[in-house]
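Notebook entry, structure prediction.
Reason for the run: the old model in the group folder had no record of what sequence produced it. Starting over properly, with the input documented here first.
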Amino acid sequence: MAEAAFKVHGGQPLRGDVIAQRSKNAVLPMIAAALLPRQGQTVLHGVPNIADTRLALELVQQVGATVTYDEATHTAVIDATTVTTGVLPAEMSQKMRGSVLFLGPLLQRMGMVELPGSGGCDIGTRKIDFHHRGFARLGANVEMFDDGTTRITMQAPKLKGAMLYLDMPSHTGTENLMMGAALADGLTIIENAAVEPEVIDFGHFLIEMGADIEGLGTPTLYINGVESLHAIEYTPIPDRLVIGLLMMSAAITGGDITIHETEPAHLRLANAKLEQMGVEITVNGTSMRVRRPIDKRLHPINITTHPYPGYPTDLQPCISTLSTVADGKSFIRERIFESRYDFVEGLLAMGADMLISQSDVLIVNGVTALKPARVRAASIRAGAAVLLASLAAQGESWIENIYQIDRGHEAIETHLAQLGANITRVNIEKTPLSAR
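New structure, fully documented this time:
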C-alpha cells in the first residue's frame, strides 16, 4: 500500500516571495455555518485545498446541501436549501475534529443532530463538553453514548437564549455556541469566549449573515437571536499558522523571504519571540520580510503557550524546532495540550538534544547542526516541526505520513520550492506498524 511522503535535501537558505494561504481554522466554521441559511448560496473565497476543508465540504454534501469547489480560484459555493438530515456520517466525521462544528447548524436546521464521533490530531484531551453542555443550557436535549466514541445526539425544536460560561476559551466551543445562539429566542451571553483572530473573523462572517453579536474580540459575547440568517459572499483572513511556519523556515535556514497578503497584527507575539532569537522582521503593510543572516546563530528562547493573545500552541512545535539549533538552552512550556510534544521523537532522530522534564517542561540544548533522517508526521503541527528540521539538515531526509501536514497546509512543498527548497512529494510503500 502506497502513501505520500516528502523527500527533502536540506541545507539551503530560503529566498524569495510567497503568498500566504487563507485560514483553515476560520474557513471550517464558515463551511458549517453555510448550512444555517434556508435559501441562497454562500460563496467563500480563498478556501484552501487541504484535507480538512475537503472533508468539511463533503460533510455538507452528505447532509443534503449542494456544493461546488473551484480548485483554481479556491472558491466554494454552498447552497443549503436542500438539507435533508441531521445525522453526520461516521466514516467522515471521525476523520476530522472540525466535524463538531456541525452540531449547531444542523440542530438549528433539522431540530436534531447526531455526531458519531470527531477525529483530528491526537494531541491530548480535547473535550467537547464545552459544546454539548452549552447546547443543553440553550434548551437542547443532549444524550451521550458510552460506546468508546464521542457519539452525541441532540434535539431541540427551538433553542432559547441563556447565560453560558466556558471553562476554557475554546475556539470551536465559542464558534459552535455562537451559531446556536444566533437563531435562539432571546439573549445569550457567552463568558470566557475565545478571542483568537479566527473566532473574530467568524463572528464578522455571522454578522454579515444577519446575526446580532456584540463584544467580538473580548471574553464576553452578547448575542441576540434573530429569525433567520442569509447567504453571503466572504473571504476569510490569512492563515497565521502557515505564515508562522514559512517565517520559521527562513529563520532556521538562514534565509531571506517576503510573505505577502498577511495580517501582521495576528502574529505580534510570535514575531516578538522570533526577534528575541535574532530573526529580523520588517513589516510593510500586509507584507512581512523575514531574514536571518546565515553566519549568525539563533539565540535560545523561553516559551509558555497560552490562549490568544498568548503564544499559540500551534506554533510551539515550530519554535521548539528553531531552538534545537540555537546557541544555548531553551525552555518550552506547553500549557494547552498535554500531548503537544509529539514532535520530539522525530527531532531526536535528527540529532536534536532535548528532553521533557518531570514538570513537563521541554528543555532544549542547541546543537550546531541537525542531521537528515527518516521520520513521520505525528500530527499537523508535529509534521511542520520535522519539515522545518529537514530544511535545515544537510543531506536527504524523508517525512512519512504527510497526510497530517496536508490537513493544514495546501501544497506546502510548492511554496517551499518557490523559495528555493529542494523538496519533492513522492509515493512510497507504507510501512506496516509492526515493522516500525
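Summary: The first helix runs from residue 24 to 33.
The old model has been moved to the deprecated folder.
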